[in-house]
Write a structure and sequence with these properties.
Order of helices and strands of chain B: HHHHHHHHHHHHH
Number of helices of chain A: 4
Helix content of chain A: 25-40%
Shape of chain A: elongated
Strand content of chain A: 25-35%
Helix content of chain B: 55-70%
Strand order of the largest sheet of chain A: 4-3-5-6-7
Oligomer: heterodimer
Radius of gyration of chain A: 22 Å
Distance between the termini of chain A: 86 Å
Distance between the termini of chain B: 32 Å
Strand content of chain B: under 5%
Shape of chain B: flat
Radius of gyration of chain B: 21 Å
């Protein structure tokens, strides 16, 4: 005998969850972090990079040792830094924007976070703005560097 | 109206009648894959042991909502270690007894807490999101799914339904990603910028990413210097990602699409050093190793 098996509750719940995930993921785009963990739009690399500016750390002193000549964090030897750390890059962009907008409270919070989580203390560094065409910079090194501020793990340098 | 608009999501033809032997083979296969799913979560927990000291030392935390309670405790480091212990214990329980629903709830909560803690320091990573979401869906596996021979017919259908829901959810996220790239491209085209369908789009993505992190990738420099080779990469990626949800309802395409998506993940690793290795394993479990005939 053929029996039709109905399970409307489970089916509706699972379908509802999937639909809800889609809409909550899209709605999360409107939040400052563009995500309400774990609801995410999955808009990974939605925009193609164009010529423009980004913020970077120019290291003057690292782990108590003077870096001479100063090097960008991304140029430090692999042994002394976290390789391919995109988290640091993202956090430095937030620091740069906070510096540009003059939000001192946010600057303080972000520098502590950066120093504690990503750098070897004691450390002293400039926050720089680099303007370039990514492909040109990669191939020829052509770019413009602009000084923004100096920090050390003991606080902001005057 | 709804039925008409959603018709494209349904299989084009009704699937062939699945005989009892075939159904049992499929269910046995799925039971093994489910155990492998929890084995991987345990393996992931093992790989995170190295974070123990690091997480316990950090004091500056911006907790995500599942770990909001951590900010009310006097010692952030000990709380972080507590979450790690919870994640490890629940992952171990799921390895030995995934048949219990309370264990599957616990492993979901353990993973939710751990990932929330891990991403409470600024940037949210996404390599384990799918595992978390699927672990939530697997909470609803029917009672007795580890013993197929004694499983009631109703529960067999439930088991297949839950696994299919996980497949749809995973493929939905890829379609969302493809949709995002299309919307982004349209926006950039109107702004007169370099966009996803620009011949050099992939070269710009690779160069930008490598400059951000100062990392070196296996193929990155070669492809930037030989940009013509990257020409089909972005359009192909967008098509494969966008159609993923459609494929979730076409089992005959599961293996092909899983291989294509896995190749995209391998490609981003070789060019941009972006590693979605957990997603590769999940695609293999849910689509590549699935019995579809």
């Amino acid at each position: 005998m053929k029996t039709r098996l109905k399970q409307p509750l489970l089916r509706r719940f699972l379908s509802g969850f999937i639909v809800a995930y889609f809409f909550l993921g899209m709605l999360s785009l409107a939040t400052p972090q563009r995500e309400i963990f774990p609801f995410f739009s999955w808009f990974l690399f939605p925009f193609t990079p164009n010529p423009g500016s980004s913020y970077h750390l120019l290291i003057l002193e690292y782990g108590g040792k003077t870096v001479d000549p100063p090097l960008y964090h991304r140029e430090l030897p692999f042994q002394t830094r976290n390789i391919a750390d995109i988290d640091l890059y993202t956090t430095v962009q937030r620091l740069g924007k906070a510096l540009d907008s003059g939000d001192q409270k946010r600057v303080e919070k972000l520098t502590i976070l950066i120093e504690e989580k990503f750098l070897t203390l004691p450390v002293r560094y400039h926050v720089m703005q680099i303007t370039s065409d990514p492909v040109e910079e990669f191939l020829t090194g052509q770019r413009e560097d602009r000084f923004i501020a100096t920090f050390s793990s003991q606080g902001e340098d005057p | 109206m709804m039925g008409t608009s959603m018709r494209f999501l349904r299989p084009r033809k009704p699937g062939p009648y699945m005989g009892r032997r075939l159904l049992h083979q499929k269910l046995y296969g799925n039971a093994i894959l489910l155990r492998m799913f929890y084995l991987f979560i345990f393996y992931y927990a093992l790989t995170q042991i190295q974070m123990w000291g690091h997480l316990s030392e950090v004091q500056s935390i911006q907790p995500l909502w599942p770990a909001f309670w951590i900010q009310f405790l006097p010692n952030t480091g000990q709380a972080a270690q507590g979450i790690m212990a919870l994640g490890f214990t629940t992952a171990f329980l799921a390895l030995i007894a995934p048949q219990f629903r309370w264990v599957r709830i616990a492993v979901f909560l353990g993973l939710l807490q751990y990932l929330a803690l891990r991403y409470s320091f600024g940037k949210i990573g996404h390599s384990m999101h799918l595992w978390l979401l699927v672990s939530f869906v697997f909470i609803f596996l029917p009672r007795g799914w580890t013993q197929i021979e004694t499983l009631k017919p109703r529960s067999k259908i439930s088991m297949l339904r839950v696994i299919h829901a996980a497949q749809v959810l995973v493929m939905l996220t890829y379609s969302m990603s493809g949709l995002g790239k299309i919307m982004g491209a349209i926006y950039q085209i109107f702004r007169g910028e370099i966009h996803a369908f620009h011949p050099d789009a992939m070269a710009y993505h690779i160069a930008d990413r490598l400059l951000q992190t100062g990392s070196q990738s296996i193929l990155g420099e070669f492809l930037i210097e030989n940009r013509a080779l990257t020409l089909p990469m972005m359009p192909l990626t967008i098509v494969i990602q966008t159609l993923a949800l459609w494929v979730a309802f076409r089992p005959s395409l599961f293996k092909t699409w899983a291989i294509a998506l896995i190749l995209i993940h391998i490609g981003t690793s070789l060019t941009m050093t972006i590693n979605f290795f957990p997603s590769i394993v999940l695609l293999a479990l849910l689509f590549l190793f699935q019995k579809t005939k």
